[in-house]
Amino acid sequence: MGYAYITTIGQDSHRFEDEVFDPAQNGIMLGGVSIPFDRRFKANSDGDVILHAITNAVSGLTGVNILGGEADRICLEQGIKDSKVYLEEGLKYLKDASIVHVSMTIECLRPKLKEHIPSIKESVAGLLGISSSHVGITATTGEGLTGFGRGEGIQVFAVMTFKVKD
């Protein structure tokens, strides 16, 4: 029995609410890490776009629609807004597949993410059960060509590589 390597892609984005908050008392979730920020995501859940993009990439392998499917049931019916729970639900369907690597690109003007990337990498690695050296993160403003680069929200693309039995 051999193995195959399969690559998937996931995407998610959320707009910020208009209301401004004190960043010392407010934050947004990114990769399971609370980042101080003066806005909140417009979302039913905690709006963690990183974990949502990763969950969608997992769904690309399993074919099980977690976001918009299972997550709606968990969030809307059970009141669970923690995106880590949605990712954990998606990982249940991997069966014999193992995660080799995840690479993400984040598009936003703000918050500035450079200082938070190491903690996000550690958090994502822990959630996926892989080494943080197998988690890649880049961030860009996209030169302000989209609403994300103009500060209206955040968009994430996640590419994942899985090792599966042939």
Describe, in plain words, how this protein is organized in 3D:
By secondary structure, this protein is of the alpha+beta class. It has one domain: 60s Ribosomal Protein L30, Chain: A, CATH 3.30.1330. 28% of the residues lie in helices and 30% in strands. The protein contains four helices and six strands. Strands 1-6-4-5 form a four-stranded mixed beta sheet. Strands 2-3 form a two-stranded antiparallel sheet. α1 packs parallel to α3 and α2 crosses α3. The N and C termini lie close together (6 Å).
Roughly what fraction of the amino acids lie in strands?
25-35%
Secondary structure tally: strands: 6
Provide the domain count.
Answer: 1
> Which consecutive residue ranges, at least 5 long each, have pLDDT under 50?
none
The SSE order reads EEEHHHEHEE
Name the CATH homologous superfamily.
2-C-methyl-D-erythritol 2,4-cyclodiphosphate synthase
Helix content: 25-40%
Question: What is the CATH fold-level name?
Answer: 60s Ribosomal Protein L30, Chain: A
**Average predicted local confidence, pLDDT:** 94
CATH class: Alpha Beta
CATH architecture: 2-Layer Sandwich
User: What is the topology, as strand order, of the major beta sheet?
Assistant: 1-6-4-5
Biggest pleated-sheet summary:
4 strands, mixed
**Computed CA radius of gyration, to the nearest angstrom:** 16 Å
Structural class: alpha+beta
The outline comes out as globular
| Count of helical stretches | 4
For the terminal residues, how far apart are their CA atoms? 6 Å
